[in-house]
Design brief:
InterPro entries: PAP_assoc (IPR002058)
Keywords: Magnesium, Metal-binding, Signal, Transferase
Number of domains: 1
Distance between the termini: 13 Å
Structural class: mainly alpha
CATH architecture: Orthogonal Bundle
Oligomer: single chain
GO molecular function: metal ion binding; poly(A) RNA polymerase activity
Protein name: STPAP polymerase
Strand order of the largest sheet: 4-3-5
Number of strands: 5
Largest sheet: 3 strands, mixed
Radius of gyration: 18 Å
Helix content: 25-40%
Pfam family, one: PAP_assoc
């Protein structure tokens, strides 16, 4: 579900990117640190405010510890689809700032995010739900596609190369 010119109810590239970031943050051990952790590592020279929002993070990657996660890319891809295919997305606040899914705050919370079927917090502009335009129908389709993709990733066609010229691996996910 990509973005159409002029917006619309589909997931934007930015929202999809944040879903990938959040997923990689939520692994055990994490593949990526939370943005809150990155802010804590930022030195005085790394401090940045944009529109009143704290956008600080270390510019020197040497201060970051390498991830201890040893999962393969194929395993992570399968888990991504399984993760978003099974979460109760309607009841959660997806927060790349915290690096995890949190209970959604009640509607009307002061300074809160615009409620929608999918609440994905911008990690820099904390009052912005980057998925506020997503409709229940689009969210349902996204979850269904994730479940279908997770099932394909667990099958032998994903892990074993086809000998008969049939699509296999990632190509199986790209077939209609």
């Amino acid at each position: 579900a990509g973005n159409r010119a002029g917006g619309g109810p589909l997931l934007t590239n930015y929202a999809l990117t944040l879903l990938v970031v959040l997923f990689l943050q939520s692994r055990s051990p994490p593949v990526l640190p939370s943005l809150r952790h990155l802010r804590a590592l930022a030195g005085p020279q790394d401090r940045a405010q944009v529109g009143g929002w704290d956008c600080s993070f270390p510019q020197d990657v040497a201060v970051l510890e390498p991830s201890e996660n040893t999962q393969s890319a194929a395993s992570l891809l399968a888990e991504f689809f399984s993760y978003f295919g099974t979460l109760d997305l309607g009841g959660l606040l997806l927060s790349p700032l915290e690096g995890r899914a949190l209970p959604r705050p009640p509607s009307g919370t002061p300074g809160g995010l615009r409620q929608s079927p999918l609440t994905l917090q911008d990690p820099f502009e904390l009052s912005h739900n980057v998925a506020a335009n997503v409709t229940p129908r689009v969210l349902s389709r996204f979850v269904r596609c994730c479940r279908d993709a997770a099932r394909l990733c667990r099958g032998p066609e994903f892990l074993q190369r086809s000998r008969r010229g049939r699509p296999w691996g990632l190509m199986r996910l790209l077939q209609p």
